[in-house]
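Tutorial, part two.
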Amino acid sequence: MYKVLITTVPFGDKNHLPIELLEAAGIEYLINPIGRKLKEDELAEMITDFDVLIAGTELITDKVMSRANKLKLISRVGVGLDGVDLLAAERRGIQVCYTPEAPAPAVTELTIGLMLSLLRNIHVSNAQLHRGEWQRHFGRRIPEVTIGIIGVGRIGRRVLSRLAGFGTPRVLVNDILPNPKLVPELKLEWVGKDEIYHKADIISLHIPLTPLTKNMIRREQLLMMKSDAMIINASRGGIINEKDLAEVLNSGHLSGAAIDVFEQEPYDGELNKIERCILTSHMGSMSIDCRSRMEIEATEEAVRFLTGKPLQSIVPPSEYEVQRQDL
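Running the prediction step on this input gives:
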């Protein structure tokens, strides 16, 4: 009997179909018994006897794979691949697939929600009123500010489309592949990242974590921004240097930040103490529909593989090339 290790949690909580798919195919499975994101050594110890890994955001390193003598497929619940050593998997004959489209709508909507909360000080007012303090805050509306979007892939494009529904804000956009025809009703301005740092009132990041983007935004970039600017990261932890962000916010620079992803998760750091910094627990994809779709698609790939059918969402060669270039 084939065995599947499911490390991502929660799993099957809101929609039982992923579990039903495994059981209908006669596949034995184990759901992460620790109930949180696994550390490298924990995964290395746990994975030894499994054929397929249905994975979350934990590190799946060469060390982990060296202990996984039976492993032949990693099916990633989600899109980020920074935690997966693709080249080690390739050397060991382990295939990798993922669910790139499934989380995008939910992450998009969380981004818009964070943007609205920052602009209207919803999070600050909420905290104050819970302490018994009544204070009304002036805010800004989306059509009245300059918005900077760095990265216009699956999620960045959707964010731009949603912004168009609020009116016609000025939008500065940066991407390695500029597309002048993207969301024409917004009249996007394609500019360098430094211009976004200098001119945007609110910046949202939608890029993968690679050696080129790790610590891309440090103290230097944060201090380029307007004193009352704001920044959102719902992409990957490690793109913004969290220590630098805390220091800059504590100095009084920037009027707010919203962080959904962290270099080490669960997060416990200086940003916890800063009221005007919204912190959410990597829940961008955690709408019931999108999370269910992610789990179902990843499980379907596992079942296809173990029943001898072709995979449908194999990680493309371009992702392997990104890691190869970083050697």
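The longest helix spans residues 288-306. In part three we will examine how such features are distributed along the chain.
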